[in-house]
Design brief:
Helices cover 35% and strands 18% of the residues. By secondary structure, the protein is α/β, with parallel strands linked by helices. The protein has a seven-stranded mixed beta sheet with strand order 1-3-4-2-5-6-7, sandwiched between helices. Strand 3 and strand 4 form a beta hairpin. The chain is globular. The chain starts with 18 loop residues before the first strand and ends with a helix. The protein binds guanosine-5'-diphosphate. Guanosine-5'-diphosphate (GDP) binds next to helix 2.
Length: 217
């Protein structure tokens, strides 16, 4: 059985930062569909999570960039899908809008939920990286998205964000808790602040993309 304790492994070779280029920012289904047609079959890994989970910070950390994706202390500001090309591997990271932000209206939340569901169902998504705040117990919205992806046959990579804010014991407990909900899939703990797990996240994303494309990594 894999250990619930995930700490730095100094013996592993570092995984080079992704070179991320923003290919497109799309605001609705039509624009998304139009752009997906231009991707030429590249693997797409979607990144999703509740507003403020640390998604923009993680994208910046994966690319070792400061401000590629815009981070904010104010949740709910991302209203678009951002598609990043990952060099040298060639796959796409699709940064989906954060969900569960109470101050955005019901109708708008529904519209975004429909867009995400459509994209996961029909957009050719290779895998879903589900970002979950390490400090917060499993929330319905996260569980529903995980269940949706699994029902659609999309492999899941759960990432526990802001790991620097939790003790090792809390991280371990949270990982086990999620693993039980996800039939044994153990999340990776990551911190964009101190770099914990970022190399492993790059490696895991690349491996998921490689399943689709053969030899990208
Ligand atoms: P997004 O809304 O999911 O894109 O979240 P952001 O990346 O904008 O982050 C939301 C807030 O959490 C910001 O204040 C970030 O500085 C903070 N944050 C993001 N990642 C981390 C992390 O790994 N550790 C800590 N301590 N704070 C983080």
């Amino acid at each position: 059985m894999r250990s619930a304790v995930q700490e730095r492994d100094e013996t592993k070779a570092p995984f080079p930062p992704f070179v991320l280029t923003l290919e497109a920012t799309v605001f609705n289904r039509k624009q998304l569909e139009d752009h997906l047609r231009t991707l030429g079959g590249a693997a797409q890994i979607a990144l999703a999570g509740r507003s403020n989970v640390g998604k923009s910070s993680l994208i910046n950390a994966l690319g070792q960039r400061r401000r590629l994706a815009k981070t904010s202390a104010t949740p709910g500001k991302t209203r678009s899908v951002n598609l990043y090309r990952v060099a040298p591997h060639g796959f796409i990271l699709s940064d989906l809008p954060g969900y569960g932000y109470a101050r955005c209206g019901r109708e708008e939340q529904r519209r975004w939920a429909r867009l995400i569901e459509e994209y996961l169902r029909h957009g050719g998504v290779t895998a879903l990286a589900l970002l979950i705040d390490c400090r917060i117990p499993p929330q319905n919205a996260d569980r529903e998205l995980a269940d949706f992806a699994r029902a659609a046959g999309i492999p899941l990579l759960p990432l526990l964000t802001k790991a620097d804010k939790c003790s090792q014991a809390e991280r371990s407990r949270r990982r086990q808790e999620w693993s039980r909900l996800l039939d044994g899939v153990l999340p990776l703990a990551v911190s964009s602040r101190d770099g914990l797990g970022i190399d492993d996240a790059r490696r895991a994303l690349c491996a998921l993309a490689a399943r689709e494309e053969g030899d990208v990594c």
